[in-house]
Amino acid sequence: LKKYSGIMDTHNRIPLDLYERYNVKRGLRNSDGTGVLVGLTEIGDVHGYIMEEGDKIPVEGVLRYRGIDVKELSKGFQQEKRFGFEETIFLLLFGYLPSSEELSNFNEQIGDFRELPDQFTEDMILKAPSNNIMNKLARSVLAAYSFDDYAEDISVWNMLRQSVKLIAQLPTMAAYAYQAKAYYYMGKSLFIHKPDPSLSTAENLLLMIRPNRKYKDIEAEILDLSLVLHAEHGGGNNSAFSTHVVSSSGTDTYSAIAAAIGSLKGPLHGGANIQVARMMDDIKKHVSDWKSDKEISEYVTKILMKDAFDKKGLIYGMGHAVYTLSDPRAEILKEKARELAASSDRMDEFCLFEKIENLVPGIFQKLKNNDKPLCANVDFYSGFVYSILNIPEDLYTPIFAIARIPGWCAHRVEEIVSGGRIIRPAYKSVSPRVPYSSLKNR
Ligand code: MLT
Fold first, then answer.
1. What's the rounded Cα separation, in Å, for the pair 144 and 137?
2. Which fold has domain 272-388?
3. Dihedral in degrees, nearest 10, Cα atoms 275, 276, 281, 284
4. For atom 9 of ligand 1, which residue has the closest CA?
């Protein structure tokens, strides 16, 4: 192994010019995050590793949006006490950070789009039965197609217009979808407040779902930070990749975004934050001493041995397909979770999360007999943060979608502008045979 240093665009994307400059034969994107470059033959101002196929290197996680490290990005927003999500949307869609004039125009434009027509809310969201908010979101996005005279136009200006509109409206759709679920499936009557065009996405989310419209600035800032951290994760994550695949067929923006929502909903992708919450409820119930490493380890081992909570023996929120040593988003959210827990009397719970985070890698290595590092990913702490913010569990994954839609839109534009060819991966069927009787009697 030889070292190289330099900038990766996002965690797993190698800037195209590196291929040429350093005669990279091909880039690898292994599922465990190893194998960054193969066959790099010249060393210059880039750092990292030159790898042979099969080499494994643990990687510290770095995530960049359009070249800007999210750690730096989120610090800037925090120091200046501004909301950063709208700026991040601009960055992802247009490729650069806006001037203050551009940002204020952009915020106005988003504000103008926030509210949904009453007929849309009534017919497409409130009356449409579904006990799953992600499904309802996908359906609402598909329904928005019929309200757009230029729905099929795939020129860049039109895709960007559709993107800004959907980005602005997804939080409103989610709030009403939650109201409908609460009413029809949980027997609760909720009043959803209309969005305020002058407020940020984070503020609007809290305002719409809180009965008294009240929230503290710090709550909105932390939610905003979480939105920034979830906004994009490179083209290789499942939902962004779905956007590429679906967009490459030439279809419309609404169909592409609905497909991405369907992908994100999965428990192995954005749905993992709810799975973490359920898993933690289960652990809290079964582990009597939250300070006992022994008792926690035994229960976690049971989960991994497939005896307990989840049949697949997964610890949700632990491990990441690309990050091995650290997920920068989890690190940032963890610190916010610590602050929030300290100020809301939930430090015991935070310590339990932290203990599990620290114990799981060792238990995993022992069970699987390997020395693979394992880190907490962004889903591990996000649900805990939302629960302290009093956000209902049903909205955890929809909030991920609200955060990630700018990333999807940016990938869609990229695909249409630079892709050109339909994505059609090689596929070899394994032709499973299933006896019809397994269906007939159900
Ligand atoms: C994401 O943010 O999309 C997740 O970490 C999953 C992934 O990147 O594959």
1. 11
2. Cytochrome p450-Terp; domain 2 (1.10.230)
3. 150
4. 237
Pairing of strands 49-50, 64-65: unpaired
What is the distance between the terminal CA atoms of the chain, rounded to a whole angstrom? 56
For ligand 1, atom 3, the nearest C-alpha belongs to 237
* Rounded distance between C-alpha atoms, residue 108 and residue 354, angstroms: 41
Is the pLDDT higher at 38 or at 260? 260
DSSP state of 195: P
The CA–CA distances, whole Å, from 195 to 41, 117, 192 equal 55, 12, 9
Question: pLDDT tens across 163-194, in order?
Answer: 999 999 999 999 999 999 988 888 888 889 99
Domain boundaries, the chain: 1-57, 71-267+393-419, 272-388
Site to probe by mutation for ligand 1, drawn from 11, 63, 64, 233 as the one with most ligand atoms within 8 Å of Cβ, is 233
Give percent helix, percent strand, percent coil of the chain, each to the nearest 5: 55, 5, 40
Q: In the CATH hierarchy, which fold is given to the domain comprising 71-267+393-419?
A: Citrate Synthase; domain 1 (1.10.580)
- The ipTM estimated for the assembled molecules is 0.96
Residue 201 to residue 114: CA distance in whole angstroms: 9
Of 153, 342, 177, 141, nearest in space to 251 by CA: 153
